[in-house]
UniProtKB/TrEMBL annotation, chain B:
The lineage of its organism: Bacteria, Pseudomonadati, Pseudomonadota, Alphaproteobacteria, Rhodospirillales. Pfam families: MreD. It is a multi-pass membrane protein. It is found in: Cell membrane. Keywords: Cell membrane, Cell shape, Membrane, Transmembrane, Transmembrane helix. It comes from the Bacteria. One of its GO terms (biological process) is regulation of cell shape. Belongs to the MreD family. The chain crosses the membrane at residues 17-37, 44-61, 81-103, 115-143, 149-166. One of its GO terms (cellular component) is plasma membrane. This is Rod shape-determining protein MreD.
Length: 302, 180
């Protein structure tokens, strides 16, 4: 069979076939370039496809992530047992310190409530929240998390994604059974923040590194390492005061923030709905609150 | 002999043959899904190894006939949509890698594992470099190349175990008719 295939007809047909195969291959290559260009000019066009793919893959990822989580829990358990004594000692000290804080907090709470009554202040409270399991992550160039909760479970675009230590990002895309969180460290993440002590406003801009930058701060902000950074509530995206991190470095090269959540590999993430529609609900994927953050601000894209 | 002929022409045997032929595609898709699973390891926090490239490289050398251009385009797009990265970038990188490896595949035939690994190192470097540049183009911003560098090293380190698994799958893939 193989010997017969090497007849004169095949010899002429072979280069033709190779040529056709190469041509088809080049068409596929051109298709991928066209996809890249389309993705850049109109990122929204892929949003639906993206969420359909994620919805379809969510059950598989949900199953695959369980052993990983179990293994992680086992390692953590072992680690905890090793350092039980030191951890206990540390916690004892922390409880003592926190008891003092509790006294201060109680006094402030009473004072605050009295003052709020005087001002008839309206406080933003969480209307509802939904907790989801992390079933996927982004790649080297995307800082995102995939959760196993979607529209059906109550996830909505623009909700704040929070873990125990503070804000980690916001819901960027929602499918029926899955949603994608754009982390604060992502290149496209822009969140209006303020320095807790000085109330100086700025924008927290991710750049794919572990330490996002503070940009568009006022020249006289006088930022110092160690200052707490919280959400400012501007643009009506998040309520003010959600903890984000502390100023890590502040020099000529810029100001960078160490996130409270930077060492965390969250297994569960809570999505909080404050009932603030803001501009995030309609913001295009990957482009955060920048356009409506404030009329005096220019677009954030470098 | 007659029994064997009957078996070969049997529907079940043909289905079996077809399913085994899909193994390269299925293993590549599995790599895509695995690369989306959160590992919880600190070193994986900011980078992700290019697992799909390992599968594409392996099958491009040994069975390029079972992983055609359209499949690679689809695998790349699937990865981009699942991971949330810029659509088209992974397809582009995988297609180019496939093109380069297929043109050099005869060189790797019969060579030791070290040589194949060394070849992967080069291909993965080119792929990491191109991915970094393409992402900067698509995202229109400067990106620290450190992430791409670490991802490259991780990908190389993960090649041996994944290649071992792929070679197990390779044993199940039907032999090419021309080779038989």
């Amino acid at each position: 069979m193989a010997k017969r295939a090497k007849g004169p007809d095949t010899r002429t047909a072979q280069p033709l076939r190779t040529f056709a195969q190469r041509a088809v291959f080049l068409i596929f290559l051109a298709c991928s370039i066209a996809l890249m260009v389309l993705g850049r000019t109109d990122p929204d066009s892929f949003e639906r496809a993206r969420m359909q793919v994620t919805d379809a893959a969510a059950p598989i990822l949900d199953v695959l992530v369980r052993p990983v989580d179990a293994m992680n829990a086992l390692v953590e358990h072992g680690y905890d047992l090793l350092y039980l004594y030191q951890e206990n000692e540390r916690l004892r000290q922390e409880v003592e310190r926190l008891m003092q804080w509790q006294a201060v907090a109680r006094r402030l709470e009473v004072e605050n409530s009295q003052m709020r009554e005087l001002l008839t202040f309206r406080r933003e409270t969480v209307k509802r929240f939904v907790t989801g399991r992390v079933i996927g992550t982004g790649g080297t160039f995307v800082r995102s998390l995939l959760l196993n909760v979607g529209e059906i479970q109550g996830a909505r675009k623009g909700q704040a994604a929070v873990i125990g230590t503070g804000l980690i990002g916001r819901v960027a895309e929602v499918g029926l059974h899955s949603s994608r969180i754009l982390l604060l460290t992502d290149l496209n993440s822009r969140v209006p923040v303020q320095i807790e002590s000085s109330r100086a406003r700025a924008i927290l801009a991710g750049d794919n590194t572990a330490f996002p930058r503070l940009i568009y701060g006022a020249a006289n902000s006088d930022l110092q390492p160690g200052q707490r950074v919280v959400t400012s509530g501007d643009a009506g995206a998040f309520p003010p005061g959600l903890p984000i991190g502390v100023v890590a470095t502040a020099d000529e090269s810029g100001v960078r923030v160490q996130l409270y959540s930077s060492d965390e590999r969250p297994e569960l993430v809570r999505l909080m709905d404050f009932g603030l529609d803001g501009i995030l609900g309609s913001a295009p994927q990957g482009v955060a609150p920048t356009r409506s953050v404030g009329s005096d601000m220019r677009p954030v894209r470098p | 002999m007659a029994f064997a002929t009957t078996m070969r022409s049997g529907l079940l045997a043909r289905m079996d043959h077809f399913a085994r032929g899909l193994l390269p595609l299925l293993t590549a898709l599995m790599c895509v899904v695995l690369s989306a699973v959160p590992s919880r390891l600190p070193m994986f926090a900011l980078v992700a190894p290019a697992l799909t490239l390992i599968a594409i490289y392996y099958w491009s050398i040994y069975r390029p006939d079972l992983l055609r251009g359209f499949f690679i385009l689809a695998i790349g797009l699937f990865q981009d949509l699942l991971i949330g990265s810029a659509p088209g970038v992974t397809s582009f990188i995988l297609l180019l890698s496939y093109l380069v490896v297929v043109s050099q595949r005869r060189f790797f035939h019969g060579k030791s594992f070290g040589v194949v690994w060394w070849g992967f190192m080069l291909i993965a470097f080119g792929a990491a470099l191109l991915t970094w540049i393409s992402n900067m183009f698509v995202l229109n911003a400067w990106i620290d190349p450190k992430g791409a560098g670490i991802s490259w090293v991780l990908t190389i380190l993960l090649y041996p175990p994944f290649a071992a698994l792929l070679s197990q799958a390779h044993k199940l893939v039907p032999v090419r008719e021309l080779d038989a």
